[in-house]
Every structure is written in C-alpha cells, then in structure tokens.
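hey so i finally got around to running the thing on that chain from the lab meeting. sorry it took forever, my laptop kept dying and i had to restart like 3 times. anyway pasting the input first so we r on the same page abt which one it is
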Amino acid sequence: MNERLPDEPAGRVEALLDEIVDALDLDAEVVVEEVEDEIAARVEGHDLGLLIGRRGQTIDAVQLICYRVAFRGRGDRKRVSVDAAGYRERRRQTVERQADRAADRALETGKEIELEPMSPTERKIVHDRLAERSGLETFSEGEEPERCVIVAPLVGG
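ok and heres what got predicted. didnt touch it at all, straight out
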C-alpha cells in the first residue's frame, strides 16, 4: 500500500479493499460498516468473480488479510467480514440446501452422507442448520483443506 494506513481498523479495511479493487482493475465500490462486534465490508459491482475466486477461496483470503491488517498492533479485535456481490449469502443458501438434502438422504437410507470439502465457515453453517433436526448428528472429518462434514443418522434414533 502506497499511503499510510488509517489508525482505525474499519478505515484500514476500507483502504486495503480499495487498493485490491484498484489492483484487480475492478469496476466496483467498497462499503464498510462497523457495528459493535463486527466490521462488515462489501464490494459492490459487476464481474467480481476474480475477487471471489474458485469456491470463494480468494475472498476468504482477502477477508483474512483485512482482519490481520485491521488489528495489527492492537489488542482490541472483532470479526471482519468481506463480501462481494452478495456471494456469501448465496453460498450460505446453497450450503443450507446441501445440508437439508444430505439430512433427508441420511434419514431415508440410514447411512452416513459425506458432504464436499468445505471451509470452516461453511461447515459451521451445516452444523448449525442441522442442529435441531431430530435423529441426526453431524461431525467434521479429515484434514484441511479437504475437511468435510458427515451427516449421520443416530443409531437407534
């Protein structure tokens, strides 16, 4: 980054995202909102696939960098989320549908259903989605980046 970063974490996130959007030559606008427990950044525009990356890997990496830059040298920290063109909400809905289908199949067949490898955030979506479904349990298995959720019928459930 060429210029000195702002002192406030939200300002740092915005400055870094502006720099990334410029470097990728994207026609997009950065919006950052800070609430009590989170700094939420959105990149709004068209053709943001380069920023999102395959299976969200690029935007996950950008989010981690934003978090690290925002709170470098500071003791107080909060969650930082970065979204582009509504990707995270669409992905959450997709993962919830996959979880529901896996739960239905596990209950119908009585067998464990292994979902595709997912990020920790996506695995949490599955666990949360199915936590209240009776007759099921969920657990994660494997090593990153191939870690996945198993949806299993409860024995005798």
